[in-house]
Every structure is written in structure tokens, then in C-alpha cells.
Design brief:
single chain, alpha+beta, 2 domains, two-stranded antiparallel sheet, Lipoprotein
Amino acid sequence: MKQKTTLFYTILLSIFLFSGCKKEDSYEELTSLADDKIQQAVKLTENLSCNDLKECRIDTLYYTYVPVHPSFEQAYNKLLAEAADLKERAQKVYKGPIVYNTSVAPNYLPPHFGIRCIAGKLKVASARDLELSEINQLLADLLPKLQTFFDDVPCNDPSKWHIATLRKECEFIPILYTDKQNFAEFGNMAEQYNHLYSAKRIQDKSLNCSDKNDKPAKGVICENGKPKITY
């Protein structure tokens, strides 16, 4: 009887000690679990039928763009919420050295050109996914918009004007720009243009352009209230 009583209390004490020991969160484990949730979310967006194109929206998911369809959007959002919670918990238990992010655009993603049906599947297209004919058309549409974007801004101080150089075929095209309320729109168009031109250079084997600008712009002056490039 005494032995049974001793065994009973031993088991009871073990249960008490075990239940009282809570496993501490691990930064590595929580981060791994968060990444797994993100990968699960990405997998939901893969293998969509081209018939689903009109119903999809584009989402920016950490390091990529993905097409999101209403059929799995609830599960997709749930996975992202769980990943965000895990990452937050991971940061709270992080005990490593402080890491300072000095990059200009840590979450940079290149511009996209909408959801396309590519090889029978839906994909958020980059410039390199486009046909050369469409690339040429987009470049032709964007260039005059960039060249005239700041035409309504008077030039009073040339130091506030700058020059961006774009490419048209093998030609170097100087573009004048300055600070403006909707400058981000200009920046987005210029970024699209550069990515499209890069894709064109890859596809168009007839282009054999030099990367050296033999007549670089030197600066900007104001003439009759208008900016003018000097060489």
C-alpha cells in the first residue's frame, strides 16, 4: 500500500513538473514556421487556369507578385495572418545582434505588367514575359510621356533640375526632371521603361548597341523659363 501511495505521488509530481515547464519560443523555429506559411500561401496561387484571369487580383507578397483568386482568398489571407503573427513572435524573442538595414529599397520589386496567361497558367508578368511587339508598343507609348511630363513646370533654378538618360534603340535620350507633387508617377513610368528596354535588348538580337554615350549631357540651364540641356 505504501509503495502504491509513493508511486501515485511520484507520478503526480512528474505531471505537475511537466505541465509547469513551458517550452520557450525559438527565433529560428518561429521564423521557419512563418516562412512555411508563406510558401503555403504561394502554392495556393500556382497552377491557376487561364479561365480565372478576370476574377484574379494581384497581391504583393514579400518578394514576389502573385495572382489571388476568390476561391482561395480566405485561406490565403489566413496563412498570411498566421505568418505575420509568427514573425512578430520571432522578433520578440530575438537575442542576436542588432542588424541595421542600410539598403535603399529592402522590399524592392520590379514593375509588373498585369496578369497574363503564359504557357497555359496565370502569372503576374514581368517585362521579360512580354512579346517583343508589345514591348516595342509600350516603349513607344511611354517615351513621349516621359519627355513631356515636366513641360508645365517653369525653370527658375537650374540646380533643381536633373537629367535621366534612357535608351531608344541604340540612341541615348536625355530626359529632364525636377521635383513635383506627382513625381512618383514619373519614377514609375521611367522604371517601367528601363525594364522594358532591358527585355527588348534580350529578345531583339538585331540590336548591337554600344553602352558608351559619345555625347553625354553636361548640365541644365534655364532659358526663357524653360529648362535646357547643355552639352
